[in-house]
Amino acid sequence: MKKFSAIVIAAGRGKRMRSKTAKVLHPVAGRPLIWYMVSLAGRVADARVVVVIGHQAERVRAYLEQSKTEFEPFDIALQPEQLGTGHAVQQAKAALMPNGKAASKHCLIVNADTPLLRRTTVKRLLARHEREKATLTLLSTDLSDPRGYGRVVRGNAGRVVKVVEEPDATRVERAIHEVNVGTYVVETSFLFRALARVHAQNAQGEYYLTDIVGLAVAEGRRVAGLKTADSSECVGVNTREHLAFVEQAMRQRIRTRWLEKGITLLDPRTTFIDDMVTVGTDTVLYPGVTLEGQTKIGADCVIRSHSRVTNSVVGQAVTIQDSSLVDSAIIEDRAMVGPFAHVRPGSMLRKQSKVGNFVELKNTELGAGSKSNHLTYLGDTFVGKRVNIGAGTITCNYDGYRKERTMIEDEAFIGSGAQLIAPVRVGKGAVVGAGSTISQDVPGEALALSRSPQVTREEWAVRRRAYYSEKSATAPKSTPSARGRKKGSKG
């Protein structure tokens, strides 16, 4: 028989969140709350993991199904009515007691809304349970303000005798500062046998999982406890305030992790890195940098202040200058971006290419060594190697009905202020003159110009100034209007 199965309770409504979104789908450091606990359960259990869902079950199920490759194998059980934690755990019986026999000797039970709970703490809890040969072991902590939590009541020799929920606690019990975290290890066969004896005779009218503590004590079974000194990891997200606390705590953990791995954060407090982001050694992140989603940053990069990189792959020794946005793009080694650049989805910057001030790329490939330094829009464009794109260039990719591509081959030169009307191709080594509007293909090595001939009129500015000077001198003097005269004056 395997040692540990696991149950993740993710069925609650989260009424105090006041949200249209199920509580367990609210993000923390870029991942939904539920991700952390399903992931943790899978890493510590050697038997089946069951996720119990209820409120907005279809949305939660859809997320779990689309993310299942990120987890160890798991089953889903449905709690159709939210009748309490004891009732939620009962829904896992079919998976964990097939044919009436336990699939594992013990069962770990965790709530999906405690993402700060550490794997090391859970491993200690499992070890304590085995070492003490307990039927039930619970995790607890001390809180200076225990309001809202179930209190852990201890008897002789500090043994746990029961857990009482706050609405049902006496005045003396409410004065207890040791609280139940909601994480347990229970002998599997005892768990479901005890749950069959739990009743909803309490202030909430719910089936409390905590009631099995008293049932175990009544049977003379050993109930153990592990008190963690770090109360922050025990915070359950029940309100937006809790969510904000957990978000900040998780962000700090992530910063610490990357600092220990050799990343420089010039102002850690203002640097935000999602949990799934990876960063290479000796990369420097300036104040106000945000790295989101599935972003991968290589080694020796520099990302300067107020830049945001989302779901992108950034190579080695890349520089992203201030106030740039990179979204769902690929940037290869030693490329440069910004400042004030916008690299939009589907774009790729090849090695040693450069995108400069106020340049926007969308679904565009910029070839190795190519440059677009200033005030340019490149949409649905392929740019070959060693191409220079002049300031103010626009690839006109949309005609109001469909989008077309522009092709600029290797070593071409696009003069400032050019407009390339797609679909169009500029051949290898071709030159497009500044200010040109190009609507036809340009052959390789050709010069393309499309602008009106320049007209120069000698001494025109001198004559213009003389004309306006003479006109000003001969203009009639203005006289006061009747409205402007003083009262009593003669006309």
Largest sheet: 11 strands, parallel
Cα-atom radius of gyration: 34 Å
Strand-pairing-aware structural class: alpha/beta
- Order of the strands making up the biggest sheet: 12-15-18-21-24-27-30-33-36-39-41
Give the percentage of residues in beta strands. 25-35%
Q: What is the tally of beta strands?
A: 41
Number of helices: 10
Which stretches are low in confidence, meaning pLDDT under 50 for 5 or more residues running? 484-491
The outline comes out as elongated
- Level of helix content? 10-25%
| Distance separating the two termini | 118 Å
What's the average pLDDT? 94
Structure description:
- The protein has 491 residues and is of the alpha/beta class.
- It is built from ten helices and 41 strands.
- The chain has an eleven-stranded parallel sheet, with helices on one face. The chain has a nine-stranded parallel sheet with strand order 14-17-20-23-26-29-32-35-38, with no helix packed on it.
- Strand 4, helix 2 (57-66) and strand 5 form a beta-alpha-beta unit.
- Helix 7 crosses helix 8.
- The longest helix is centred in the middle third of the chain and has 21 residues, at 240-260.
- It is elongated.
- The model is unreliable at 484-491 (pLDDT under 50).
